[in-house]
Design goal:
Layout: H1 2-10, H2 12-31, H3 53-60, H4 64-67, H5 76-91, H6 93-99, H7 103-135, H8 149-180, H9 185-195, H10 198-210, H11 214-239, E1 241-248, E2 251-253, E3 256-258, E4 262-268, H12 275-292, H13 296-299, H14 303-310, H15 316-337, H16 340-349, E5 352-353, H17 361-400, H18 418-441
Antiparallel strand pairs: 1-4, 1-5, 2-3
Length: 449
Amino acid sequence: MIKTIINAFKAADIRKKLLFTAFIILVFRIGSVIPVPFVNIVDEINVGKGNTIMTYLSLMTGSAFTYGTIFAMSITPYINSSIIMQLLAVAIPALENLQKEGEEGRKKITAITRFLTVALGLLQSLAYFFYLRAQGYLATDANGMAYTGFDAVFQAVVIIAVLTAGTAVIMWLGEQISIQGIGNGISIILFAGIASRFPTIIKQLFQYISTGRTVYKVLVPVVCVVFVLMIAYIVLLDNAERRLPIQYAKRVVGRKMYGGQSTHMPIKVNMSGVLPIIFASSILSLPGTVQMFLSSSKYEGTFWEKFFNAFQSDSWWYAGMYFVLIIFFAYFYSTIQYNPIEMANNLRKNNGVIPGIRPGRPTSDYILRIISRLTLIGALMISVVALFPIVYSLICDAAIKPLTESGTDGGMSITMGGTSLIILVGVALETVRQLESQMMMRHYKGFLD
């Protein structure tokens, strides 16, 4: 691998792409520490405890959200707009037709996605501004009083405009990576934001060891080993696929004979990627977000207290609901992404058949059964990654607290969730594949040799 990287830097065009990608990441990280005007944050923004929309955004933005920087919205509006466009393409025939029009259709969809990203960024920035104002994070006048009148309006316009512009700039930076750099630009920026939290995680592990307790000296190495094993597990999951055998019939065109070869149709086991986890965590974070804006004295001792506690990430109820939602969204996403009838029709048009399966309806039913089984297997496999940090924290809270001196400072939480880990490994693998393909075009030995 080291030799491949050295060879990559020897190729002038690949070296240029790698350096350009690194430069864009540097610009992104610099923007992630530049504060927004009129925002006064001494330490960090209080995003609340447990599972909320704000803790999720803080994770995805590399803590830029908690410091009120110009890139606080990060790439999440673009991701949300892309997901919305995928869902709308299924429900709106006009968008579905655009997807089938080739390059021109994709350009129109990309343009719509950009406008939708700016709109979502504006809405998200507006909500973020109201939260900052409610929590007292906005700058005040010389007398320590909040701005009023025209000054207050000007302050709001500047903050919302800067945050929205930051969203548009990040979207543009991601597109530049895709055009002139290595890998998918949006994924690379998301990778950089999540990876920037590694120093905080390492510092947290050292703090556990510095307590001097034997239980932490054992658990910290165990966590590191499990982390490496989880990466290997995700790599295996990402590469796993079911290959349906396809046989093409021979046909004569003019004086030449075409077809007659055997091939396969690859169907990935984890065909929905990390999206089921993102959908599930977003829905489960809504009650926790609502709870942040309510006074605890209003619902203390009532049904709503038990309701909100069930949606905290340190409860077994949450783990159970998380698991069910991951399964549901895995099936939902595979349903809108794969059309067995269309796949069967394409095979028949190209004189292809699955050995032992008749063309037409039997082929579509067979493909549907295969996709359903693979979806279940893939959902169960990504559930292991998503639920492990939660289950591990729950077990540690129950087992370690009685061993501590006070009984209140025990437990050991893992801040790197399953969503982050799958995104990190998936983006790294995809980037390595692209670099590998470009190296092979220049007759260099690659990562697989």
